[in-house]
């Protein structure tokens, strides 16, 4: 697969020169964003063959790895950690359950007389669904993860150790964001328009 380049800024090096205009900073930010997406798409494409060999999606393998690493989770906890909707996790759990790789159990607490709880909760009791790896799921993860890890390590060899550490920090920084700075940027955009 050939790498495509974003149309924003082309191959022009936007890092040269002194102080950047607001428009140049926006172009660089958008180009960096597109590079992240292109790289993620490229890695997914390259992993596709291995995922087909295991007859699983990358999302499915990541979910199994999370259960392997963290143990039993509720659907809500898994959705928060994977940054997706509960319905998406529930659908994935159903697929993996049919394959025999995960087990899903609903835990029901006894009915309560606590007046602080809603009438519905007092009548029904508290319910939570938990997902965990089955024995077959543990065996599958033990087989699939090392093979997947070898391919991932081959990709990451393009970066030196320090670059990998910087990439980790940069990705975390992007996910954490700075909402106040973002809001100021949005206000600036509105004033400049």
Average of the residue pLDDT scores? 82
CATH topology: Arc Repressor Mutant, subunit A
| Sequence of strands across the biggest β-sheet | 1-3-2
Taking the alpha carbons of the first and last residues, their distance comes to: 40 Å
Largest beta-sheet details: 3 strands, antiparallel
Helix content: 55-70%
Question: Layout of SSEs?
Answer:
Blueprint: H1 22-54, H2 58-70, E1 73-74, H3 75-82, H4 86-98, E2 102-108, H5 119-124, E3 127-133, H6 135-156, H7 161-176, H8 179-192
Antiparallel strand pairs: 1-3, 2-3
Q: What does it look like?
A:
With 193 residues, the protein is mainly alpha-helical. The chain has one domain: Orthogonal Bundle (Arc Repressor Mutant, subunit A). 65% of the residues lie in helices and 8% in strands. The chain has eight helices and three strands, in the order H-H-E-H-H-E-H-E-H-H-H. It has helices spanning 22-54, 58-70, 75-82, 86-98, 119-124, 135-156, 161-176, 179-192, and strands at residues 73-74, 102-108, 127-133. It has a three-stranded antiparallel sheet with strand order 1-3-2. Helix 1 crosses helix 6 (135-156), helix 2 packs across helix 6 and helix 3 crosses helix 4. It is flat, with a radius of gyration of 23 Å. The model is unreliable at 1-11 (pLDDT under 50).
Features:
193 residues; 3-stranded antiparallel β-sheet; 8 helices; 3 strands
């Amino acid at each position: 697969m050939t790498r495509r380049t974003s149309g924003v800024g082309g191959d022009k090096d936007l890092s040269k020169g002194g102080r950047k205009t607001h428009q140049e900073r926006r172009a660089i930010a958008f180009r960096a964003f597109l590079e992240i997406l292109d790289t993620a798409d490229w890695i997914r494409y390259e992993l596709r063959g291995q995922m087909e060999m295991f007859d699983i999606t990358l999302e499915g393998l990541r979910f199994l790895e999370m259960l392997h690493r963290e143990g039993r989770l509720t659907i809500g906890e898994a959705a928060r950690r994977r940054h997706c909707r509960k319905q998406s996790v529930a659908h994935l759990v159903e697929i993996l359950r049919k394959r025999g790789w995960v087990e899903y159990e609903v835990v029901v607490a006894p009915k309560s007389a606590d007046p602080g709880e809603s009438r519905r909760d007092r009548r029904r009791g508290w319910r939570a669904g938990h997902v965990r790896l089955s024995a077959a799921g543990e065996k599958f993860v033990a087989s699939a993860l090392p093979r997947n890890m070898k391919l991932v390590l081959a990709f990451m060899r393009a970066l030196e150790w320090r670059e990998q550490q910087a990439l980790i920090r940069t990705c975390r920084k992007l996910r954490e964001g700075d909402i106040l700075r973002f809001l100021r940027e949005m206000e600036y955009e509105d004033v400049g328009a």
